[in-house]
């Protein structure tokens, strides 16, 4: 199985929204309120607007397995100010909206996307990949811990955000091997050269 990563394009927005709806339904069926508007999650319309901006800013990426879209991730240097300190934000890239198509669950697509975040962080001179996870989704916490992240802290319980479990991984913990990160090849599709986003 070959996983390749390319920048998302405008025509990928429907795909990304479908992935979000697919995962939301899957989570709800498992008893999780993650991404539900009742639990202060983003509505699909707000999510689509946020992703549209991220795509236009070259911050969103698509993983493809043998040429078929299999997952997405958004990577930038922005986060809720109440979650991370200014010093933490200054030395990291932040992962948002990591979603893997259920058809490719268990095939390391998420690992590839997280490794891509590490490669971008390293290229931008940042030392950390950080993310916030839904506070009550302990299976998700375990997933990130298996992926080499450590729980930095649970943010202020008075914070209104439902995603207050803060995870981080130092870029040095991803091993560079044959041009890859973490043992995963980072070769982009030839028709989509990787362009590093301009970060503020």
- CA distance, first residue to last residue: 36 Å
The proportion of strand residues reads: 25-35%
What is the top-level CATH class? Alpha Beta
Low-confidence stretches: 176-200
* Biggest sheet strand line-up: 1-2-3-4-5-7-6
The percentage helix is 25-40%
Shape: globular
Structural class: alpha+beta
Rg of Cα set: 16 Å
CATH superfamily: Gcn5-related N-acetyltransferase (GNAT)
Count the domains: 1
Sketch the major β-sheet.
7 strands, mixed
Q: Please name the CATH architecture.
A: 3-Layer(aba) Sandwich
Overview of the structural elements:
It is a single chain. The chain is of the alpha+beta class and 200 residues long. The chain has one domain: Aminopeptidase (3-Layer(aba) Sandwich). Helices cover 30% and strands 25% of the residues. It contains five helices and nine strands, in the order E-H-H-E-E-H-E-H-E-H-E-E-E-E. The protein has a seven-stranded mixed β-sheet with strand order 1-2-3-4-5-7-6. Strands 8-9 form a two-stranded antiparallel sheet. Helix 1 packs across helix 2. The radius of gyration is 16 Å and the shape is globular. The C terminus is likely disordered.
Q: Brief description of this entry?
A:
With 200 residues, this protein is of the alpha+beta class. The chain contains five helices and nine strands; from the N terminus they run βααββαβαβαββββ. It has one domain (3-181): Gcn5-related N-acetyltransferase (GNAT) (Aminopeptidase, 3-Layer(aba) Sandwich), CATH 3.40.630.
Annotation keywords:
7-stranded mixed β-sheet, alpha+beta, globular, 200 residues, Aminopeptidase, 25% strand
